[in-house]
Each structure stands twice: as structure tokens, then as C-alpha cells.
Amino acid sequence: MCGRDYFMKPARILAIAGSDSSGGAGIQADVKTITVLGGYAMTAITAITAQNTLGVQAIEALSPELVGAQIDACITDIGVDAVKIGMLGSAPIAECVAQRLEGLEVPVIFDPVMVSTSGSTLADKETVAAFERLIQLAMLTTPNIGELAALGGAETMASRGAAYLAKGGDAEGETVEDRLIVPGHEPVIWQGSRIDTRHNHGTGCTMSSAIATFLAQGSTLEEAIEDARDFVRAALLNAPEFGAGNGPMGHHAVR
């Protein structure tokens, strides 16, 4: 039977990130991930990019006021069960986002995007410095190897008292290792065989959006990360093989 009484409302996920014109990463990957996993996707776009599988050709950040207005519009009317933060575009935008989210009692997942899969710089030094407030308010920060180093490494993250997922996809070797570090707890480690593909555009965006969605649906942090890892791996294996460079993953094919 169909009808309102038999319909379970989806978890509401707000993705705050830049737009990827080619659809592989950023807001587009966030919306695909959240939707396929059964969530309701809302967006606050921080920047517009012209990009494809070969790289980023142009970036234009939106005003902090417009970013803040998007966040307010979603939260005050629809409501929100979890937030994912990705590319921010500028230090003032990072500060604006932090101001809007401080005191919000839902899981916040922060993917500290600094460089695209193709190698284009997406955050300058001032923007990275402004990440501090976001790391403090997030339930989880999800840096890759280069991002973790730029944030000061494991020792600095420990001094912040911040929980983070150290992603190992950019490391060398046949095994990919991801490490969950939560202050006061033993590290939780996941390992998996490396999927040999160049179609890996948007893996970080997808991972963080999936974690946020699973948390909003009631999973524990460890469960959310484990299921998000499985989703990313399935999307990598189902990539449509578009483009001449780092192609998009196959979000559409994961069920």
C-alpha cells in the first residue's frame, strides 16, 4: 500500500560545498550519494567551478552572505539531521559556515578539501587556517594524507582533541588503510585491497556525505564509516568510465 501513513520521512542532510560542473565531485556527488542512500539532500553552494576529469579550469567563490543565507533557508524551514562540509572557497566563507553551525546539535562531518583529485588547489593558506573552528565543532574530520599533514599531522590533531578519519587512499601499496582516531579511545583500523582505477573523482566527497547520511539514519560512528567505505568501493567498481582523466564514480549503480 502507498500513502502518507506508510511513508517514512528520510533523514535530512545539508551538504555545504562547491559545485562540480562535470558532476563527479562536490555538491553533485553529495546529492547523488545522499539520495541513493535514502536521505533527503539539501545544499548550500560555496563556489562555482568549471571542471571536468582533466582538472579545474575556473573557480568563483560566492559571497559569505549568500552561503549563510542558503544555510539559514534550509535549517529554519526543512530542518536538518546531519551536515556535511566540503570545499569552502575562502576564509570568510569558512568563518561564516562555522558561525552558522556552532550550537547546532546534529552530526557535522568536515571534509577539509584542499586539492582536487586532478591536483588543482581549492583552498589557500588563509582558508586552511580558518578550518580550525570547523574542526572543533565537527563530530568527525576526514582528511586524506596531504590534508592531514597540512592540518599539522596526528600530533596536532591530538592536541585539538578532535576525532578524525585518516584516509589512506592516496598512500602507496596494494592495501588501503583508513584509521579512525577518537580521543580517549583505541584507533579503529579498516583495511582493503586497492581498487586499481583512474575513475576516482569525488571519493572524499562521497565518503563524507555517506558518513553523514548513515549517522543521520541512526548508525554509530564506526558503523557509518564502515558502510560508507563499502559504498565508496562499490561506486569505484561501478564507475561508468567517462572522461579522459580522473573519471566519476558510479553512484547510480550502487544499491
Automatic annotation (TrEMBL):
Entry's transmembrane regions: none
CDD domains: HMPP_kinase
Its EC number(s): 2.7.1.49
GO cellular component: cytosol
Span of domain Pyridoxamine kinase/Phosphomethylpyrimidine kinase: 20-249
GO MF term list: hydroxymethylpyrimidine kinase activity; phosphomethylpyrimidine kinase activity
Keywords assigned: Kinase, Transferase
The protein's name: hydroxymethylpyrimidine kinase
Organism in which the protein naturally occurs: Novosphingobium pentaromativorans US6-1
